[in-house]
Amino acid sequence: MSNDSNLHNNKQQAIALKYEQSKVPTVVAKGHGDIAEQMLALAKQHDVLIHQDEELSAMLSHLDLGQEIPDSLYHVIAELIAFSYVLQGKFPDSWKNIHNKIDHKT
What we know:
This protein is α+β, with helices and mostly antiparallel strands. The chain has a single domain (2-92), classed as name from scop, CATH 3.40.1690.10. The chain has 3 helices and 4 strands. Strands 3-2-1-4 form a 4-stranded mixed β-sheet. The radius of gyration is 15 Å and the shape is globular. The two termini are 29 Å apart.
């Protein structure tokens, strides 16, 4: 989920993405103002990653509900999804103390 405060009207903005393995992330919810605040509250209740990035929010806000993210955003969104898995302690089986930087028990 992306969150940002719009500098022009001071309204909160939120965009929710859904990712299923082997599929491209898609926009599943968008909101401004009170709706954005409700989306963010629900995300926090359910331990959903909230990423704050004004530029990314601006790009995602142009997408329609149900629309897949464009190729130009695929790498940045993939990195955010991968990072969210790491934050949750989820690592691929193939990761065995990669570069002596990540140590986890399997």
